[in-house]
Write a structure and sequence with these properties.
The structure holds 2 protein chains of 2 kinds. Chain A is α+β, with helices and mostly antiparallel strands. Helix content of chain A is 25%, strand content 14%. Chain A is built from 4 helices and 6 strands. Chain A has helices spanning 26-36, 122-134, 144-152, 154-166, and strands spanning 44-47, 56-61, 73-78, 89-92, 168-170, 173-175. Chain B is α/β, with parallel strands linked by helices. In chain B, α4 packs across α12 (285-304) and α9 (219-234) crosses α10 (246-262). The chains are: A alpha+beta, B alpha/beta.
């Protein structure tokens, strides 16, 4: 039991100026840790437009194998004040022909929504995203057309991915060129 | 109210405060000073002027607390009037805090309730420090965590690292949902705080994005689809979705219904749409009354020391009969909010010591022995990254800080730094103590 202290003194208003603001938030404590210990595979780089703002940044993934080899995909990370109790909001800014990423950039990755746990880190998400490019999953489609093609005709899917990354129409959707070389 | 009545007005409190009793705490001395303290010195902050807030304000004012501040960012809606009894139909659209304050001040003469029609985040430490006790009736976990973090940041340490008890502002937190409610007493850093037991809150429901997009089975899936995907795509009102705007809700309802029809899903209703968009919690006035009364009693007990405070978590449920239970929520030693005790570093030459010198110190000092510390802090309310070597884009932009002195970096005496390093599973907090400083130390 906490010993009660006597409260019976006048509270000082606006105490002397040497009291420092210490607004360390759980999110800031955790993101500092996460970012400092980012352990990225060769294929990933980060870009912090404002180095003072660790809560908003871009993650660039350039897969070096699989269907998406040679592509360059930019993801926008927004870490909210409730991190790590809520996952960051991650959107793909590059239009990509992918069964698990829709044309608005929404990403279907379980740990970004229903399976998020506070023990997971920014690194876990990067691995998850990396995995999506290596193993696109037709079972959990967000872009149903792409998923159908992947399921029924892998060669056509591969062809479509390559074509899209060079900048082309697939069906009636235009995909911007997103090759790593430029 | 006639003057002569006033002398007898507080007799029921005098019977408790001016006599000793079997349950007094050690800190209690029977005296008329205590009532005087409640009337004239003690300052209480009530956060939220909604269902719990209205009850709390009434309870506290009737218990002799005369200096009360109330803060609420909301305005009064028609649906509040059944239980938020300080409000009338004519008040719809007005500030809850202002209307509640005006009502109490008029109804209970001598009480001075000061309203704040804004978010809790709009005020800083100098505002919160003026209160003896904070009592909250909130409907949001984010807001609870924010005030929790604020009160923790106000806790000062003595030279020897122990907590300066006069800097601890107790927080009483109440919450209700339908027929269930809870109340808890938090002494920031001394016992379990909001973040210590975050797992006690019900998890947020979220559905897999692919289910929402392709294989919806529930009416909720259809609503979520419209909310997450269709709204951004069609942006019908050229603004963010607002669960309070009936036009927005109707639009979502209509689109969700279209989607539900395609997938043969039944059970969609306007109310369900409102529920999913706003996460509406049903409110029962009697539960609010019980929980507010418990909270107000705790405020009274702590303010007067006439009885030991609740230790520390009270649960109430009257769905089927009445069930109450009390337990001691345990402090989580890994809590990011309250268990990060700042470690002191004395600096005797802040105008010549550079950031590089500080990093060298962190790497070589036996107590720290770090490898590649990343350091952030907060200056004038803004986050600032001082240095981080592990991330290329940040390293390049912060490298120039290394040769600057701590003064040049605008770090001041008492400054807190967040330091992350591979040698520690969590970030640590370091407090800089400038020993050459002419500013008086606390």
């Amino acid at each position: 039991m906490i010993k009660l202290f006597s409260l019976k003194q006048q509270k000082k208003e606006g105490e002397s100026g040497n009291q420092q603001k210490s607004t360390r938030t759980a999110a800031q404590l955790r993101i500092t840790k996460d970012i400092n210990e980012l352990n990225l595979p060769r294929t990933c780089t980060t870009n912090f437009p404002d180095p003072n703002d660790l809560l908003n940044f871009k993650m660039i993934i350039c897969p070096d194998e699989g269907y998406y080899r040679g592509g360059r995909f930019v993801f926008n990370f927004k870490v909210g004040p409730n991190y790590p109790h809520e996952p960051p909001k991650v959107k793909c800014e590059t239009k990509v022909y992918h069964p698990n990423i829709d044309l608005e950039g929404n990403v279907c990755l379980n740990i970004l929504r229903e399976d998020w746990k506070p023990v997971l880190t920014i690194n876990s998400i990067v691995y998850g995203l990396q995995y999506l490019f290596l193993e696109p999953n037709a079972e959990d489609p967000l872009n149903k057309e792409a998923a159908d093609v992947l399921q029924n005709n892998r060669r056509l899917f591969e062809h479509n991915v390559t074509k899209a990354m060079r900048g082309a129409y697939i069906g009636d959707v235009y995909f911007d060129r997103c090759l790593n070389s430029n | 109210m006639v003057e002569t009545d006033l002398s007898k007005k507080w007799n029921y409190l005098r019977k408790i405060l001016e006599r000793s009793g079997p349950f007094d705490t050690e800190a209690f001395t029977p005296s008329s000073d205590t009532l005087d303290f409640l009337h004239n010195t003690c300052k209480i902050l009530v956060i939220g002027a909604g269902g719990l807030g209205c009850e709390l304000l009434k309870d506290l004012a009737m218990m002799g607390f005369k200096n009360i501040d109330v803060i609420d960012m909301d305005t009064i809606e028609l649906s509040n009037l059944n239980r938020q009894f300080l409000f009338r139909r004519k008040d719809i659209g007005k500030s809850k805090a202002e209307t509640a304050a005006e009502f109490i001040n008029k109804r209970i003469p001598g009480t001075k309730v000061t309203p704040h029609f804004c978010k809790i985040q709009d005020y800083d430490e100098s505002f919160y420090r003026q209160f003896h006790i904070v009592v909250s009736g909130l409907d949001s976990i984010v807001a609870r965590r924010w005030i929790n973090g604020m009160l923790i940041s106000l806790v000062r340490l003595e030279e020897d690292g122990t907590v300066d008890q006069s800097s601890v502002i107790p927080m009483i937190d109440g919450g209700t949902e339908g027929f269930k409610g809870n109340a808890r007493v938090i002494f920031p850093t001394l016992n379990a705080c909001i973040d210590c037991n975050l797992d006690l809150f019900p998890p947020q429901i979220s559905y897999p994005l692919c289910t929402i997009a392709n294989t919806p089975r529930l009416p909720e899936h259809c609503i979520e689809y419209v909310k997450i995907i269709q709204w951004d795509k069609e942006n019908p009102f050229k603004c963010a979705l607002d669960g309070d705007d009936p036009e927005h809700v109707s639009w979502v309802y209509e689109k969700a219904q279209e989607r539900a029809n395609i997938y043969n899903i039944t059970g969609l209703s306007y109310r369900l749409v409102q529920g999913v968009l706003k996460n509406i919690i049903p409110a029962v006035s009697s539960t609010n009354a019980v929980i507010a009364a418990v909270c107000a009693t705790e405020v009274f007990k702590i303010a007067t020391s006439c009885y030991e405070a609740l230790n520390n978590y009270f649960v109430f449920n009257d769905i089927d009969g009445i069930y109450t239970y009390k337990f001691e929520a345990e402090k989580n030693p890994k809590c990011l909010a309250c268990s990060t005790v700042p470690r002191m570093i004395s600096i005797n030459n802040p105008s010549s010591m550079t950031l590089q010198d500080l990093i060298d110190y962190l790497c070589t000092n036996v107590e720290f022995q770090m490898k590649s510390p990343g350091i952030t802090t907060m200056i004038n309310g803004k986050n600032k990254t001082l240095y981080m070597s592990t991330v290329k884009s940040i390293e390049e932009q912060t490298r120039s800080n290394l040769t600057l002195s701590l003064h040049e970096l605008n770090l001041s005496d008492g400054q807190e730094l967040i330091i992350a390093d591979a040698t520690n599973p969590n970030s640590i907090v370091v407090k800089l103590k400038f020993t050459d400083n002419e500013v008086e130390m606390y």
